[in-house]
Amino acid sequence: MNRLSGVEPAIVFRDAALQDLEQLVALDAICFPRGTAYPTRVMRHYAFSKQSKSIVALRGKTIVGLIVIRLATAVAEIVTIDVLPENRGSGLGSALMQRAEDWIRARSCSLIALEVDEENLAAVSLYESHGFAVRERYKQDGKRRYVMVKELS
Fold first, then answer.
1. Which neighbouring-strand residues pair with 15?
2. Going by DSSP bridges, is the β-strand pair 111-117/75-83 parallel, antiparallel, or unpaired?
3. Is residue 50 helix, strand or coil?
4. How far apart are the C-alpha atoms of 28 and 1, rounded to whole Å?
5. Count of CB atoms situated within 10 Å of the CB of 138
6. Closest CA to 25 of 54, 60, 5
7. 144 HSE (CA, 13 A, CB side)
8. What is the pLDDT of residues 10-59, one digit of tens each?
């Protein structure tokens, strides 16, 4: 477990466990609108498959942040990053991104990809601050989205 200093009470990071599933689904439902948030079955698949890594941020016993990474050969995908609204802007999202990138680099991936709504300016800014750039723009369900990537050396 790791800690994020400067935040009280301290944020602790650890791998997600299957017993966290209910909290992960609830967090995702807070962070994303209905139809976009993952139902239990889908969250379980992404968060706990053999090709995945899920890292949670805890304040006490409450999960306040989550990042799910999925590996596919030399490419890693950030499936979701969730931070409770009251914890946004605290550096928690950036800390989760850094932990994910460290894990991805250790697996010799050459590229990280993710998708984000174009209107989610805070998320786009976070990803850009971590070296991601827009590779593709598309429209899905009436929303304009970006595919953002970061090449790893």
1. 55
2. parallel
3. coil
4. 22
5. 11
6. 54
7. 8
8. 899 999 999 999 999 999 999 998 888 999 999 999 999 999 999 999 99
Tokens at 143, concatenated: 């929303």
Amino acid at residue number 75: V
Cα gap 44→96, rounded to integer Å: 19
Cα(81)–Cα(28) distance, rounded to whole angstroms? 9
What is the token pair recorded at 23?
A: 């909290």
For 56, the token pair is: 């949670």
pLDDT digits (tens, 9 = 90+) for 56-88: 999 999 999 999 999 988 899 999 999 999 999
Residue of 7, 6, 148 lying closest to 81 (CA atoms): 148
CA angle 79, 82, 87 (to 5 degrees): 160
- Tokens representing 93 are 């999202």
Rounded to the nearest 10 degrees, the angle between the axes of helix 21-31 and helix 40-48 is 110
